[in-house]
Amino acid sequence: MRRVHSAAAEDHVERLAREGDPAGAVKEMIWNALDADATRVEVVIERSPTDAVDKIVIKDDDSGVTPAACSSTFDRIGGS
User: Fold this and answer.
1) Phi and psi, residue 47, nearest 5°
2) Rounded Cα distance, 35 and 64, in Å
3) Can you tell me whether residue 53 is helix, strand or coil?
4) What is the pLDDT of residues 10-68, one digit of tens each?
5) DSSP SS3 for 5
6) Which residue from 43, 27, 25 is spatially nearest to 35, judged by alpha carbons?
7) What residues does 72 pair with on adjacent strands?
8) Cβ atoms within 10 A of the Cβ of 33, count?
9) What CA–CA distance (Å, rounded) separates 77 from 35?
C-alpha cells in the first residue's frame, strides 16, 4: 500500500470546523470517506502530554485515488 501525506492549510481546517465546531470537520471527513464507498473508517485522536488534542488521524478503505494521481490530487488543500 502506498501512503501519501497531505496537510491541509489552516484556512481550510477552520472553514471545515466552522470556527466553533471542530467535530464538524471530523464528521465531514468521515462522510467524505463513506461517500467514496469506504466500509471501514478509523478515527484516532492523539493527545499531548497535557491531554490537549494534538492530532486527529482519519483512515479509511475507500476506493480512493490511484497512486499515480495522489501527488497532484492532494498536493495542496486550502491555502486560499
Assistant:
1) -115, 150
2) 10
3) strand
4) 777 667 666 567 788 788 888 888 988 899 999 999 999 999 988 889 999 987 777 77
5) coil
6) 27
7) none
8) 20
9) 19
Provide CB contacts within 8 A for 79, sequence distance 6+: 9, 11, 12
**Is the whole model's pTM more than 0.85, yes or no?**
no
Residue 23: partners with Cβ closer than 8 Å, 6 or more residues away: none
For the chain, give every domain's residue range: 10-73
Question: Quick one: which H or E segment has residue 61?
Answer: none
The C-alpha atoms of residue 31 and residue 41 are separated, in whole angstroms, by 10
Q: Which amino acid is at 52?
A: A
As given in the structure block, the three cell numbers for residue 39 are 466500509
